[in-house]
Amino acid sequence: MPDAVTPLASEGLTYAAAGVDTAAGDRAVELMKAAVARTHGPQVLGGAGGFAGLFDASALKSYDRPLLASSTDGVGTKVAIAQALDIHDTIGFDLVGMVVDDVVVCGAKPLVMTDYIACGRVVPERIADIVRGIAAACEVAGVALVGGETAEHPGLLGPDEYDVAGAAVGVVEAADLLGPAKVHDGDVVLAIASSGLHSNGFSLVRKVIEVAGWKLDRDVPEFGRTLGEELLVPTRVYSADLLSLAQDASAQVHAYSHITGGGLAANLARVLPVGLAATVDRSTWTVPAIFDVVRGLGGVPWSDLEATLNLGVGMVAVVGPDGVDAALRHLAACGLPAWVLGTIGADDGAAGQDIVRGTKGVHGGAVRMTGAYRTT
After folding, report:
1. Less Cβ crowding at N or C end of the chain, within 10 Å?
2. What structural domains and CATH numbers belong to the chain?
3. Low-confidence residues of the chain, pLDDT below 50?
4. What per-residue confidence (pLDDT) applies to 231?
């Protein structure tokens, strides 16, 4: 017979004593339900609270060959800025943008999204703020938020720490699939402006700020606001506008690239076919102040900066030469600043510091960076 076990507490331990408050989780759900419901169209069945989200996919019957596109991502260490400022209703745009704008790269319409929040302690109002931001971004993207999970991890995360992640599924007709197979010699590369840092490279940005000794409440004249306000600017969500652009036959869209981790050249190379190269002119735009401040404050080399941050280009469209004017007009009508970034031509096989090819495991085309960046 084993020895008797002596309880650690006179009344025994409970889940609440271990640091998990299920009642707080229920309160958080009640606070977020209305925001989530606003993302639901008639295709969503059952509402919130089920073990799985249900989406009526009957519309897929009209497709000749529907391809499902899926993506998952997080926000990275940008959440540390939100936590330090105690502002949690914008980080959802970063999450949704990172996920659905990967789906739209191949021309797919995002249909459903789910989210996951891990936290050290459930504070209902904070969790609801996060999810309300996710839901608001889903409305902009035209995607239904059909499910989610909030997990309390006491002892693993601090009481005021959290991390967020999400996943989305979309659909595209096979004949309308965008990507390397549609890119040709003579195509034109268009840049579409970012809203700022978006959600990549914050480990570098935060380290620069730490070493410099800057505080988040510091007023920065170059930004016209505090450092914290600039860092927390939400990621621009492009998916609905870029779907409408892809459906505009006069724009001749052949490929999109989402400029996230790895920077412009590495991500553009992923959507080009072997044998072709994009020549990109760095002087075609003025790098926004936040990037130049990070560079100057940390003494960060331009080469490292452009391989880490978006430098003001959030998305890229590769279009046919006869579609440039129509594409730029369409993007302007959507309120998206855009400009001609470069052209597509034959890859001469050259190598060097300013040439990128074969990134992120993709055996694709090349990107040649030319010119010098302009700053304010």
Report:
1. N
2. 20-173 (3.30.1330.10), 180-370 (3.90.650.10)
3. 1
4. 98
**Joined tokens for residue 202:** 């914050």
Q: What is the pTM of this model?
A: 0.92
Query: Residue 266, SS3?
Result: helix
Beta-strand pair 44-45/286-287: unpaired
Alpha helices in the chain (DSSP H): 22-37, 78-85, 91-103, 124-141, 202-212, 227-231, 239-246, 263-269, 289-298, 302-306, 324-333
- Looking at residue 338, its pLDDT comes to 98
The answer to whether 200 and 76 have CB atoms below 8 angstroms apart is yes
**CA dihedral over 171, 177, 180, 186, signed as positive or negative:** negative
pLDDT of residue 11: 67
Residues 6+ apart with CB under 8 A from 200: 76, 260, 261, 308, 309, 310
Quick one: which of 148, 155, 157 has its CA closest to 25? 148
- DSSP letter at 232 equals T
DSSP per position, 1-62 = -PPPPPPSSTT---TTTTT--HHHHHHHHHHHHHHHHTT--TTEES-SSSSS-EE--GGGGG
Phi and psi, residue 317, nearest 5°: -120, 135
